[in-house]
Specification:
Blueprint: H1 6-20, H2 24-37, H3 39-51, H4 57-63, E1 79-80, E2 83-91, E3 95-102, E4 110-116, H5 123-137, E5 147-152, E6 158-163, H6 170-177, H7 181-200, E7 203-204, E8 213-215, E9 221-223, E10 230-231, H8 238-251, H9 259-263, H10 269-285, H11 297-305, H12 325-328, H13 337-344, H14 347-355, H15 367-378, H16 390-400, H17 402-420, H18 426-450, H19 457-475, H20 482-499, H21 510-530, H22 535-554, H23 558-577, H24 583-602, H25 606-621, H26 627-643, H27 647-663, H28 669-688, H29 698-718, H30 724-743, H31 745-759, H32 766-785, H33 789-805, H34 819-833, H35 837-853, H36 865-882, H37 885-905, H38 910-921
Antiparallel strand pairs: 1-2, 2-3, 3-4, 4-6, 5-6, 7-10, 8-9
Helix pairs in contact: 1-3, 2-3, 4-5, 7-10, 7-15, 10-14, 14-15, 16-17, 17-18, 18-19, 18-20, 19-20, 20-21, 20-22, 21-22, 22-23, 22-24, 23-24, 24-25, 24-26, 25-26, 26-27, 26-28, 27-28, 28-29, 28-30, 29-30, 30-31, 30-32, 31-32, 32-33, 32-34, 33-34, 34-35, 35-36, 36-37, 37-38
Amino acid sequence: MSTLNPDRWQALSPYLDQALGMTDEERAEWLTSQRAQNPSLAVQLEELLQEHRALAQEHFLEQGPAPPLAVQPALPGQTVGPYTLLSPIGEGGMGSVWLAQRNDGRFARRVAVKFLRASLNGRNGAERFKREGSMLGRLAHPHIAQLLDAGVSPAGQPYLVLELVEGPNIVEYCDRRKLSVEGRLRLFLDVLAAVAHAHANLIVHRDLKPSNVLVGPDGQVKLLDFGIAKLLEEEGDAAAETLLTREGGSALTPQFAAPEQLTGAPVTTATDVYGLGVLLYLLLTGEHPAGPGLQSPAELVKGIVETVPPRPSDAVTSGRIETEAALTHAAKRATTPERLRRLLRGDLDTIVARTLKKNPQERFASVSALADDLRRFLRHEPITSRPETIAYVAAKFLRRYWLPVSAAVLIVASLSAGLYVANRERVIAEQRFGQLRQLSNQVFDLDKSIQNLPGSTQARQRLVSAALQYLDGLAAHDRGDLNLAQEIAEGYWHVAGVQGVPTELNLGEPDKAEASLERADALIERVLQSRPQSARALLCSGHIAHDRMILAQEEHRNQDALAYAHKAALRFDAFLRLGTASDHDRMDVAGCYGNIALAHLNMHLYGEAIPYAQRLVEILRSLPSARYLVAGGLSLQANALRFQGDLEGALQDIQEARKIADEAGYPDGTVHMIDEYGILLREGQILGEDGGVNLGRPADAIEPLQKAFDMAEDIARKDPGDAVSRSRMANSGMALGNILRQRDPQRALTIYDLALSRISEARSSLTAKRYQSSLLANSSYPLCRLHRTAEARRRIDSAISILKQTKDLPAERIKLDSDALVVSCAQADYELEEGDPHKAAELFEQLLDRVMAANPDPSSDLRDAPKLSRLYETLARLYRRSGDSTKAEGMQSRRLQLWQGWNRKLPHNHFVLRQIAATMAN
């Protein structure tokens, strides 16, 4: 390539672009026609195509540019690839940036073309330039300027083609528009989202400053310039770090550097937290935290490294902020410096001060943590950076929910007078029980009124603590009073639901929930021994058993779950036979039947699940007001049919369920999202679940799975403490990521990483840890496809470490539906990806032995058959690769026998026939 005349390269470039845009078959036909028309051109094109890996974007980013020709400066009118340079935009330490226009007629778009400075076009400069392109190539975020193309100019100069962002920097934009504090913070939250995305991809920007954060004409923030960014995954690579420190250090902007950058200390994500703190300080005050009068470099370094900056409330500049309507309820009113100081004083002072700590360990642990505190401030919630004193938390809570809190205060006040006259006499004691009972009920009513409000977790935690105090007080003095025992049992049941039963938004404390349910169960059983026909006691007992079933199943205590399911069904059947149930009660019981069906499905008891799902639909179809709940029953039926092999019937039921969910009226948006999530998830799995029983339509499965994932993320984003939405993100994220990882690995990795981020926010539990391990393991596949194998190895190791903590690994027996299987498969597949088929075969052999030791029944459970079949298929492929045809045929035979057995059970079943065809093809 280096021998090619630059003018000749210019002439051939359009043809090369055209050839590279074709498929292999199209290119072969096109070259044949070119040979007939212009043989000389065809020969040179074929030579260029053989070398195109060194010039195409992705390989330029991996391998660096070809040996440079005589480097010439960029000029207006010059063409690089399909782009014509128009005019220079700017120049920096790394190189120059030009405005350019695409010229090949495919589409009209103006872009920014960044050239490596000629003086840096040696090995180190080109390496840094390559690194910037590599980092941008792995980032895909709406608030990060997109990398569009890359290559080498005819003069041998490396270039990057970037999304063009035309607009002022974020500080100028906010000042020109005189945005309110709220407006500035919401724009700043978009910057945080971009930086958090970079950190999730193990990239530290290291040069966050106003000129690198622009706002386009559409008001959207764009983060630019990753020229001195650092890959965290290279920590420990001395050569890479020396290069970055030596050259990156000279390129950073001292005014916006963190103390550790100026002193040569290690750079981490906390470095970007500091840079964001400087940017936030500028947005709120108009001043640099190191002070406006620092002129010399020595003064600047001392100010950043040693001097504690003044609080933002003491450094505000007047006239920059126009209105504070949302935060002060004073619409369209000019903000005086004093009013602005009052607004910044307190929470915002604390948040900014924490970002600017000299010691990186004292800053926010992550950009997401900083964003959470800013969102809490905007919602008038307590921030995590301040001590949760009673007065502080109460003030924040009262500002958000002044009406329900006022009502609760009145209740407490009215009860206080009664408590003062309590004495040892029985009559007064009964009065006290009644008052405490009333207060307990009011607490639960208040919880119901706020449970679906975004950010209500802390308030609910305090309500639970208060309710338990009153319930424990009542339980200590019930004196055999059955009515009081009934009240206390119902109280503990309500508390358990808030603590951690995943049928509603909860606090993620399943152990505490189980303890509350156990106390409730003992109390209600005592009532039923004396009153076996009490409708209220039967209903309460059914609910308690139902919730214990769910908790047991979440922890894989299947025998306990089945016992509780049986007990709940008996109680609900007895309750309905009394004939006194209201429509509301029937809807309630129907929902519980649905969960009993789901529990049986999760335990692979499909035949037992269907009658409960049918019971649900039967009850609800007779209640016009409950039409939306019918969708949930049909969804459960669809899943049961799916795992019995009736995929067409399953698809029919799930599509009817989705139609009902789209048309029916729901009591509120949260209920709608929670119900529709399950329907969308099951529709995606029926259509194309990776490695599951499906219709073989993975492309059609992406849409419903993405919607389910987005719904769960919407709830998780609104309530930082909700555990259910985070589990649902993990579940739907795995289903979606597993489909995408072969066809779109970058998108799959983004899905996995967001799900990982959310499940890590949930309270520590076995369920959350297991989700985390499977997400880490599954994310190793797209990382390998993106040639990030070192990171893939680390994630697999982390997944194994988590399952060692949960005692799932090491294991002599591994179930086919376990997280241990997912992680073990990823470990073995990684060895194969790294080119060690013998090690991979050894791991798969061990895994198959441990699976068989768990006594699976794939010949009776269709849900398990694809997973075992996959183990047979992989081992057969590995044995063939190593030349052991006898073992390969043995595995192939076991796989074929498995599906032939299912073909006898389910003759003419399309899914089974597909598996037989795939087996025969191998």
